[in-house]
Amino acid sequence: MSERPGGVTSELSRDLKLFHVTLMGLGMMIGAGVFLGVGNTIRMAGPGAVLLTFALNGLVALFSAMSYAELSSAIPRAGGAYNFARLGFGRRASFIAGWMEWFASSVAGSVYALTLAIYLLRYLETLGLLGGLSSEHPLLVKGVAAITVLFFLYINFRGASETGKVGAFFTLGQMAILLFIGAAGIWVALKDPSRLQNFDPFLPEGWSKILLTMGFTYVAFEGFEVIAQAGDESIDPKRTIPKAMLYSVFFVTLTYVLVGFATVVAVKAGSPGVGETPVWAWIAQFGERGFGEAVSRLMPFADLLVTVTVICAATSALNATIYSATRASYALGRDGMLPPALARVSARRRTPYLALCATGVIVLLVALFLPTMDVASSASIMFLFLFFLVNLCAIRIRQEMGDELSYGYLMPLFPFFPIAAIITQVILAAGLRHVSHAAWIVAPSWILLGWLFYEFYGRSHARGTEEEITVVEEEKAPPGKGYRIMLSVANPDNVLPLMRNTYRICQAREARVELIHMIPVSDYVPLRDVPNFADEGREGIVEAMLYLTQIFPVGTTIRYCRNIARGLVSAVRQHRADMLIMGWHGRPRRRLFSFGRTIDPVIERSPSRVVVMKNCGDQRYRNVLVPVAGGGNSAFALEIAAILADPEEGQITAMTVDTGRRPFSLESFVGEQNKRLGPFARRVQCLTRSGQDVVETLLEESRQYDLIVIGCTREPLLRRMTGPSVPEQVAFRTETPAVIVKAPGALRSWVKRIF
């Protein structure tokens, strides 16, 4: 949906059913790639490779399709990868994703237009209808390609239902013909089993060539991402989009394997023209024409059948790519990253006509003036880049926004499939350098151009979305390096008690401080009204600044996000904070959470150290209890205890409860922390209590102390399934002021900063 200057909203019409959307994906996937890929795969790796290549590529495509399906079921809007990247990694990444998708789909459309023109002219030449002109004349080929592009621009302008109906017609035609060819191949093999000897040797070039052929033919599986662009125009998109994606990948993989099988068994060994040459070698000599040459021997009128098939395939793919590219540019214009004119929707046709015109210009320019092979390879690399990014988004969005979004489909065994897809896509993209060196120049150049456009235009014009984290006010700290502490200021009434303890930590670390307030606004409050809720946060930040500004470099930020925990974790990543300090006031309202719906996700996801203070007022902590079980969190708890304890009279008691289940040397562990404890190391005593109920033993002991500092468990997910852990039970049951700490390891912190 987009807004016009008068405040009237415009949106696309919803009239695409599962049938139309599935066929749209099939039409995009079954383009020229399969017809060029069959012969070249046999030439590069042998007859068996054509079956393995398409089957394995289908499996890899299914991995990414599951990520697309999951994300599209939760975010069913036009834009596809652009929307996913915006939620997962922010505006810059989303713009680059949409920019690449727009270019890749447009160039793919140019390739399909030229393919259609070439095969159509060859067929007309065989009928003698060209009047002596050569079907390979460049001007003739490009002229027919241009007319074809203009025709499908008009079809897309007519509206989504017209696009879906026309695409469905051509897709059904090509699917029927390809399945007929596959069935004919099976029938011939059953009638004459000797043709199965054409697969011997199965892989004459060895297994090493399979990855290369997979990279070369992966373009034949691009297309399911087009379905994500139909979110604004599909009926019941949360169910329609995921089903259409998975169905299209399955049917295309099955079709490709059948066609590959039929190609190999179509030629009888020793037949005229083949002689003593192995059948697979005879097919291989024709390269990209190998499919047509082989199938022409499978049945009568096969030449005509192949020509009609290629024309149908190129037509449906061209239709789908124009649709996809137009919706990608529409989404960029809708959110202000491209000129907003691209988001204008025709009042009569309900189609984004200016985005369609801009896409048409790119398709026509490439088809008329640019060499298509290297640019098409660049489009393939960009699609792989897109799939790589979408799989990253699937992981990050599920982890950070899983409780906010309503999914219509959830992939099984998460996150195995997106990780497997990421690894495979890196390998396939690297392998494409053997196909086109120029592609590795064109693709980065287009990305660089997009980055420059974003920095000089899109960044300042982008509109916020409901799911985004919006900065309401921000004042950066003076430039400099040092330990970075972020303090979450939620309630002005509790700022001073929290500040006095924060002051001690900042002083010990010689830290730079970032004060942050997240505005908690319900889902029913419009984004434009958010600044009206900033006064409370502004008051708390001013109180904190009065306490800290004279001593420490201080920055401030007031942000809005529907989910406070996600906003805090995002701020920690963005500011690269080393420590996050928060306040807490006791038991959560819901049993699902251990500390609360805000603190639980922050503790689990934050890449920085986390310090949560419960009822820690302005007092001197002379006796501090630190329950110790070993590990990084216990070590960090001792470190914080040494900072908060009274510097003159403070004493720290490191305590463990001996249940007799596992040996633990408390004295050795504490001795290893002398560097963390500094001068306080001499004032730490060790205490071991025996007991079977660890929680009750710790609670009883804590009554004698001014403060208890306890580290979180290292197993948050397992903990939720089996109930609250010991640290959590102690933290919310004790009446003693408490500090809960979490210190992720170096590798874990690095991974969390990415995901």
Automatic annotation (TrEMBL):
Residues 491-614 form the UspA domain. It is a multi-pass membrane protein. The chain crosses the membrane at residues 21-42, 48-69, 96-119, 139-157, 169-190, 210-232, 244-267, 304-325, 353-370, 376-395, 407-432, 438-457. Pfam families: AA_permease, Usp. It is found in: Membrane. One of its GO terms (biological process) is transmembrane transport. InterPro entries: AA-permease/SLC12A_dom, APC_superfamily, UspA. The keyword Methyltransferase does not apply. It comes from the Bacteria. The keyword Oxidoreductase does not apply. Keywords: Membrane, Transmembrane, Transmembrane helix. Residues 20-461 form the Amino acid permease/ SLC12A domain. The gene is yhdG_1. One of its GO terms (cellular component) is membrane. This is Putative amino acid permease YhdG. It comes from Kiritimatiella glycovorans.
